[in-house]
Amino acid sequence: MDRKAVENAVLTILNEIGEDPSREGLKRTPHRVAKAYEYLTQGYNKKIEDILNGAIFEEKYDEMVIVKDIDFYSMCEHHMLPFYGKVHIAYIPNGKIVGLSKLPRIVDAYARRLQVQERMTQQIADTIEEYLSPAGVAVVIEAYHMCMMMRGVEKQNSITTTSAMHGVFSEDTRTRSEFLNLIAQKRI
Ligand SMILES: Nc1nc2c(ncn2[C@@H]2O[C@H](COP(=O)(O)OP(=O)(O)OP(=O)(O)O)[C@@H](O)[C@H]2O)c(=O)[nH]1
Ligand SMILES: [Zn+2]
Hints:
By secondary structure, the chain is an alpha+beta fold. The chain has 2 domains: 3-40, no CATH class; 54-184, GTP cyclohydrolase I, C-terminal domain/NADPH-dependent 7-cyano-7-deazaguanine reductase, N-terminal domain (GTP Cyclohydrolase I, domain 2, 2-Layer Sandwich). The protein has 8 helices and 7 strands. The protein has helices at 3-16, 29-40, 48-52, 102-111, 117-132, 146-149, 168-171, 173-184; strands spanning 56-58, 65-76, 82-92, 96-98, 114-115, 136-145, 160-167. α1 crosses α2 and α4 packs antiparallel against α5. The protein starts with a helix and ends with a helix. Guanosine-5'-triphosphate binds next to α5 and α6.
């Protein structure tokens, strides 16, 4: 990212909304916003190979592994406003397991960029499928979209849920139900 170019763009916005970019509180705002955007879109520079490198292990465990309630913040590609919530991931190993922390890292790699919730859901599932070749993988995302809350339809309480079900999660209703029941349960 060309930070200077983003700073100039922010300066233009400040001017065009009728602000005075030279006033005390706004002097460093273009710089701050550019830095924030660098952070919020860092997913573009993340390589899945680097995240997973060395963290896939051979193991005989073949029951469901679930990591639920993974917080995420992303930005919708239509309005560049935040959408945020929780990701729930399950997979059934087929000879290979992954370091648990790598699942939230995969989530962040896809969340920290301009997104739509549906694509992000699929990208997470496809990545796990590609690297682990599991018997099945399931991803559910529940999110609030600021573009539907602070503008537009202005609905404060609607939650958008998306899912991607592969392998046994798509073929076997019992496996899918077990996953959905487990993510609905309150924590320990
Ligand atoms: N499917 C999907 N839609 C999204 C997501 N994030 C935002 N949107 C929607 O993208 C749509 C863009 O629609 P447009 O009609 O082009 O934009 P708009 O005039 O600002 O629409 P309103 O939000 O209805 O005011 C809106 O309906 C948003 O709610 C997402 O992750 N997935
Ligand atoms: Zn939006």
